[in-house]
Design brief:
Layout (H helix, E strand, L loop, with lengths): L1 E4 L8 E5 L9 E4 H8 L6 H11 L1 H5 L21 E2 L6 E2 L6 E6 H7 L4 H6 L4 E4 L4 E4 L2 E2 L11 E5 L2 E3 L12 E8 L13 E7 L7 E9 L3 E11 L5 E12 L5 E2 L11 E14 L4 E14 L45 E2 L15 E2 L6 E18 L2 E19 L7 E2 L22 E19 L5 E15 L2 E4 L13 H4 L14 E5 L2 E16 L4 E24 L22 E2 L1 H4 L17 E2 L6 E20 L5 E12 L2 E2 L12 E2 L2 E14 L3 E22 L5 E22 L5 E16 L1 E3 L19 E3 L11 E14 L2 E12 L2 E2 L9 E2 L2 E12 L4 E8 L12 E10 L6 E11 L7 E9 L2
Parallel strand pairs: 10-13, 17-21
Antiparallel strand pairs: 1-2, 2-3, 4-5, 6-12, 7-8, 8-9, 10-11, 12-13, 14-15, 14-51, 15-16, 16-18, 18-19, 19-22, 20-24, 22-23, 23-25, 25-26, 25-27, 26-29, 27-28, 28-30, 29-30, 30-31, 30-33, 32-33, 33-34, 34-37, 35-36, 37-38, 38-39, 39-40, 40-43, 41-42, 43-44, 44-47, 45-46, 47-48, 48-51, 49-50
C-alpha cells in the first residue's frame, strides 16, 4: 500500500491512498476528518495503528507534520520528523514508547551535523563520551576503566548484537539508518550491563529497487573520506543485497609536534571498512532472513580510540627522578633540573626545557608518538524471523573478532630529552660510565572475540495483552597484554643484582629477560553470560496501559594474570637495601617481581582469587588465577496514560544490573584487591511526551537513582614502594535529574531543536584514598583516619556535568539553485565535570561551549547533495570528560654527596579535549 500527500499538503485537506493492485486504478482520496474518525483512536488494530502513525502521516495522528519530504532528501525544516524505533523489541512510534529515548536518523544527523558519537552527546540529555578511551556515561552511570574484565555500563547493540565498545555508533549515515540512545536502566529487554542505558545501532538494509551512491568529503588537516554503496535485487527471487565501503585518511594531526621530523598527533588516521548484506523472504513470506558481514582495518598514527589517551597536561616538564610515588623509571624532564647533575643530554625540542603544551593542547614536543593499529576487525550479524499466527519468533546471533594495538610513550617519557652522548646521565652512575636513557615506550593490545545468541518471541495479535519473552547467551574470550620497553637500554636483560632477595621465590635464580621489557603483564580471560527475560504490556482501557517485566542474569568470569617487574637506574628501586648497590660497578638491575606483587597465603586469598601467587623460574612471571560468578534478578514496572493521540504520560520503576569484575591488565600488578562486586541501580522515572498542535513537540523526563556498588579503580602504594590499583565498590550513590527534548516550528521553513539536562550525581556513602593527595591535606579533603583515607560523601560522580544543553536552528529555502537549501546552526554548552571521585580543583574540567554551522543543498530529484560545514567555529578548547589530577612528587640527587632530596612540584591536571576548528565540504551523488 502506498501513501501520497495531496496537493494541498500544508492544510492537510486530504490524503491520497493508493491501495490498488493495478497501476490503472486511481488512488482513493479520503478527507482529514474521515482519516481522524478511522485512525484517530487508540483502539484500532495494533499493526494498522503502528503503520498509520509511523509511515502514513504523523501529522494526522500526532499533529506534527505538515509538509512533504522528498524521497531521499534532507529532513525538511518544516517537518517534525516522525520516528519509528525498536526500543522495546518491536516497532513503535517514538512518542508511544514509555522510555526516555534520543533517536538519530540519517536525516537528522545530516541536517544537524552529527558525525560521531561525541556529536550525539551534545544532543542527548545526560550522555557523555570520552573519544580517547571509548567510555560512555549516562546520567552519571559509566565505566571508569578500560580493563576488559570491567564491563561498560551502557550496553552497545549493533543490529541487535551486543558489543563491548561504543565507537561504531558514530559510523557514517551511509551505513547507519538510525541510532537510538535509551536513557536509564534497561534491566529487562537489554539486561547485559545496561545499568546506565543502551545504544542501538540499526544499519541501512538492502533495497528491492536498485540503488547506488557515492560520497566524498574533504576538510582541513588534509582529512578526506570516500564512501560508496550499492543495493538491489539478486538473481534469487525475493533476495536482495547491499555492499558498502569507505576509506578515511587524515595526514595532519590537530597537535603539531615542534620536534623537527616528529609526526603531528590527533586524529591522524588511515582506515577502511567494507560491509556486505543479504536479506530475503521465504516460505510464502513466513520467514525473514537478514545477514551482515563487515571487515575493517586501521593503520593510524595518533588517531582513533586510544590515540589521545595520554591527554593534555598544561604543566612544566616534571624534573624529579621518578614519575609518581612508587615510580620506577627515570623521567625525561629530570635533566631539566639544575640540581640533578645530569650533563650532555641533547634536548631535541627547539623550545628546550619549555613544554609547548603548557599553553595549548595543539602543540607538543614528543619523541615517541602514539600509534593506533587495528589489523583485524570482523563483525557478523544474522537475523531469522518466523511469522507465526499471533506471534513472531526472532533469532539474533553474531559477534566480533578484533586485534587492537596501541603504542606510545610511558607517563615518564613524555618530554623531549634524549641521551645521545657517551657521558652518563645520572650522577650516581659516574663511576661505572653507564648511560641511562629516559625515553620508554609501552605496547598495549587487545585480542578480543565474543559471540552472542538471542531468541525473542514477540506477540503480534490484536489483543490488549502484548508480550515479549526471550533468552540470551554471550561468550567472550580475550587477552589484554601490555608491556614497556627501552631497546636502547640493554641492562633490562640482566644480569640481576641480589637475586636471593628479589628472586627468592624461584630458588634464588632470576630468569633471563630477552625483550628489554621492564614491565610485562599478560592477562587472559573468559566471560560467559546468560539470561532469560519477559515483559508484558496490558491495555487496561483505551487510555491506560500497564507494563511488567522480569529478567534473570548470570555472569561468570575466570582467567589468569601473569606479570613481571624489573627495576634499574633509580634509587627508589633499592630503597632499604645495602649501599653497595651504588658501588664501583654502578647500579644493578633488580627483578623485584616477588617483592612487589600481592602474595597472600593459600588460606587467606582475597575474594575472587582462586590460587596463590606462583612464580615461573623459566620466565620470571608471577601468576595467579581468578574465578567468580554474579547474578541478579532485574525488571521493570510501569503505568502509562494516553488521554489523547498527542499525549503520553508514564511512570516506571526499573532495576539495572552490571556484572562484577576484576581489575587486571593495563599497568596493574597483581593488586591486593582486584575483585569488585556487581552494581545495582533502582530507578524511578516519570515522563511526558506531548505534541502541541503541528508545531511543538516536547519530551520531558525526571528520574531518581538509588545506585549501589559503583566500581572504581583506586591506586594505592604496595610492596617496594610500587603503585598498585585496587578495585573497590562505593556502597551508595545517588543520581537525580531532569531532561527535556523539544522540537519547535515557530514559522514555516524554520525548525528549532533544543535539549537540556540537569544531573545531580553524587556519592552518599563511601571512603577511599586520593592518590593525588595521599596525605589528605588539599583543600576540600575530608580525612577520616591517619592513613589518608577520606570520606567520599558529597563528592560528585565522575563525568557527570550538572548542566548541559544544545540548540539547533535550521531554515529551508525552497526551490533555490534548482533544489532546496538548508542552513543549520548549533550551539552547545556543557558544565564543569570531574574525572575522579574526589571533587577537587585538580580533577575539574571547566565548562565550555561550541558553535557549529552547515549549509546543505539538495537537488530537486534528490540525487545530488552538497554540504559545507564548520565545527567549533571559534576554535575553543572543549572537554569530553573530567580531568585527572596527578601529584608531581619525586627525588633529586646531589651530585657531590649522592644525598636525595624530595621535590614536590604540586598537583597538575590532565584533560581530554575535543577537536579544534574543522571545516570542509561533502558531495553526495545517487546514481539511482
Amino acid at each position: 500500500m502506498k501513501f501520497e500527500y495531496a496537493d494541498a499538503y500544508s492544510e492537510l485537506d486530504g490524503i491520497l491512498i493508493d491501495a490498488s493492485e493495478s497501476e490503472d486504478q486511481p488512488p482513493l482520496k479520503i478527507t482529514k476528518a474521515s482519516h481522524d474518525a478511522i485512525w484517530g483512536g487508540r483502539s484500532v488494530n495494533y499493526k494498522v495503528s503502528l503503520f498509520a502513525t509511523s509511515a502514513l502521516l504523523a501529522a494526522a495522528v500526532g499533529g506534527v507534520s505538515h509538509a512533504q519530504t522528498r524521497p531521499g532528501g534532507p529532513t525538511s525544516a518544516t517537518t517534525i520528523e516522525e520516528l519509528v524505533v525498536t526500543a522495546e523489541k518491536r516497532e513503535q512510534n517514538l512518542q508511544d514508547v514509555p522510555v526516555a529515548v534520543s533517536a538519530f536518523t540519517d536525516n537528522k544527523r545530516e541536517l544537524v551535523g552529527i558525525n560521531s558519537i561525541q556529536d550525539m552527546t551534545n544532543f542527548t540529555p545526560g550522555l557523555t563520551y570520552n573519544s580517547a578511551t571509548d567510555r560512555v556515561s549516562l546520567r552519571g552511570v559509566g565505566r571508569l576503566t578500560n580493563v576488559l574484565s570491567g564491563d561498560a555500563s551502557v550496553a552497545n547493540y549493533n543490529d541487535g548484537v551486543y558489543e563491548t565498545f561504543a565507537v561504531q555508533a558514530g559510523r557514517s549515515t551511509l551505513f547507519l539508518d538510525r541510532v537510538e540512545v535509551l536513557r536509564g536502566p534497561q534491566g529487562t529487554l537489554y539486561g547485559r550491563n545496561s545499568i546506565g542505558g543502551a545504544i542501538n545501532e540499526i544499519s541501512k538494509r538492502p533495497t528491492e529497487q536498485w540503488y547506488a551512491e557515492v560520497r566524498g568529503t574533504y576538510e582541513n588537516y588534509d582529512h578526506h573520506i570516500l564512501e560508496g554503496a550499492i543495493s538491489g535485487p539478486t538473481f534469487i527471487p525475493n533476495v536482495q543485497f547491499r555492499l558498502a565501503g569507505d576509506w578515511e585518511r587524515q595526514t595532519e594531526g590537530w597537535s603539531k609536534n615542534v620536534i623537527p621530523g616528529a609526526p603531528s598527533e590527533g586524529n591522524v588516521i588511515n582506515e577502511w571498512f567494507l560491509e556486505g548484506q543479504l536479506q530475503g523472504k521465504f516460505f510464502n513470506d513466513k520467514l525473514d532472513f537478514w545477514a551482515k558481514w563487515g571487515d575493517g582495518v586501521w593503520h593510524n598514527g595518533a588517531g582513533g580510540p586510544g590515540g589521545g589517551s595520554g591527554g593534555w597536561t598544561p604543566a612544566p616538564y616534571p624534573t624529579y627522578e621518578f614519575a609518581t610515588p612508587g615510580g620506577i623509571q627515570l623521567n625525561a624532564g629530570y635533566a631539566c633540573n639544575p640540581a640533578s647533575g645530569v650533563t650532555n643530554v641533547v634536548n631535541v625540542s627547539p623550545l628546550g626545557c619549555v613544554n609547548p603544551a603548557q599553553s595549548s593542547p595543539w602543540k607538543i614536543a614528543r619523541i615517541i608518538p602514539y600509534v593506533v593499529r587495528l589489523p583485524v576487525y570482523n563483525t557478523e550479524a544474522i537475523h531469522l524471523t518466523w511469522h507465526a499466527k499471533n506471534f513472531d519468533i526472532k533469532y539474533v546471533t553474531g559477534g566480533v573478532d578484533y586485534h587492537y594495538k596501541l603504542t606510545g610513550p610511558t607517563s615518564t617519557a613524555g618530554g623531549s630529552l634524549l641521551n645521545t652522548s657517551t657521558t652518563p646521565v645520572l650522577a650516581y652512575t659516574l663511576a661505572s660510565g653507564l648511560r641511562v636513557f629516559p625515553q620508554e615506550a609501552f605496547d598495549y593490545r587487545e585480542y578480543n572475540r565474543f559471540w552472542s545468541h538471542e531468541v525473542n518471541i514477540v506477540s503480534t495479535w490484536d489483543s490488549p495483552l502484548q508480550y515479549v519473552v526471550g533468552a540470551y547467551y554471550f561468550r567472550q574470550t580475550y587477552r589484554q597484554p601490555v608491556y614497556t620497553t627501552l631497546h636502547a637500554q640493554p641492562q633490562w636483560n640482566g644480569p640481576f643484582f641480589l637475586p636471593s632477595v628479589f628472586c627468592g621465590a624461584t630458588g634464588g635464580v632470576c630468569a633471563p629477560e630477552t625483550d628489554n621489557r621492564r614491565y610485562d603483564n599478560r592477562p587472559h580471560s573468559e566471560a560467559i553470560s546468560w539470561a532469560t527475560f519477559g515483559q508484558i504490556d496490558y491495555k487496561i482501557t483505551d487510555q491506560w496501559k500497564a507494563t511488567l517485566g522480569l529478567r534473570y542474569s548470570h555472569d561468570r568470569k575466570d582467567g589468569t594474570e601473569s606479570v613481571r617487574l624489573l627495576c634499574w637506574g633509580t634509587s627508589v628501586c633499592y630503597g632499604g637495601f645495602p649501599a653497595e648497590v651504588f658501588g664501583p660497578a654502578g647500579p644493578q638491575v633488580a627483578d623485584i617481581t616477588a617483592f612487589a606483587v600481592s602474595n597472600p597465603p593459600a588460606n587467606a586469598l582475597p575474594r575472587g582469587i582462586v590460587s596463590p601467587t606462583r612464580f615461573d623460574p623459566a620466565t620470571g612471571l608471577a601468576s595467579r588465577d581468578y574465578d567468580s560468578t554474579w547474578q541478579a534478578t532485574t525488571g521493570t514496572a510501569g503505568l502509562e496514560w494516553q488521554p489523547d493521540t498527542d499525549t503520553n504520560v508514564y511512570a516506571k520503576y526499573s532495576r539495572g544490573y552490571k556484572s562484577g569484575g576484576y581489575y587486571v591488565g593495563i599497568f596493574t600488578f597483581l593488586a591486593p584487591n582486584a575483585w569488585a562486586d556487581k552494581e545495582l541501580v533502582d530507578s524511578y522515572e516519570i515522563g511526558l511526551k506531548k505534541n502541541f498542535g503541528s508545531t511543538l513537540q516536547t519530551n520531558l523526563a525526571a528520574y531518581y537513582y538509588d545506585y549501589k556498588n559503583l566500581q572504581v579503580p583506586i591506586s594505592v602504594l604496595s610492596g617496594a614502594g610500587q603503585v598498585a590499583t585496587n578495585f573497590i565498590n562505593v556502597p551508595k550513590s545517588v543520581s537525580q535529574g531532569f531532561e527535556a527534548e523539544i522540537t519547535w516550528l515557530p514559522i514555516e521553513n524554520l525548525q528549532v531543536l533544543f535539549n537540556y539536562s540537569y544531573n545531580d550525581a553524587h556519592v552518599k556513602k563511601g571512603s577511599a584514598i586520593d592518590v593525588a593527595d595521599p596525605t589528605a591535606t588539599q583543600p576540600g579533603a575530608k580525612p577520616i583516619d591517619t592513613l589518608g583515607t577520606q570520606d567520599l560523601s558529597g563528592n560528585r560522580l565522575p563525568n557527570a556535568p550538572k548542566n548541559k544543553f544544545a540548540v539547533n536552528a535550521n531554515y529551508t529555502w525552497r526551490s533555490l539553485f534548482g533544489g532546496d537549501l538548508v542552513g543549520s546552526v548549533s550551539y552547545v554548552w556543557r558544565d564543569a565535570q570531574y574525572g575522579a571521585l574526589f571533587t577537587r580543583a585538580y580533577n575539574r574540567a571547566p565548562s565550555w561551549d561550541q558553535w557549529d554551522a552547515r549549509l546543505t543543498w539538495t537537488s530537486a530529484d534528490s540525487r545530488n547533495r552538497v554540504i559545507l560545514f564548520g565545527k567549533n567555529i571559534f576554535n575553543k578548547i572543549g572537554y569530553d570528560g573530567g580531568a585527572i589530577g596527578s601529584a608531581f612528587v619525586g627525588t633529586v640527587v646531589n651530585p657531590a654527596t649522592a644525598a636525595q632530596t624530595v621535590v614536590n612540584q604540586g598537583i597538575w591536571s590532565t584533560y581530554s579535549v575535543t577537536p579544534p576548528r574543522t571545516y570542509g565540504i561533502e558531495i553526495q551523488h545517487k546514481f539511482f
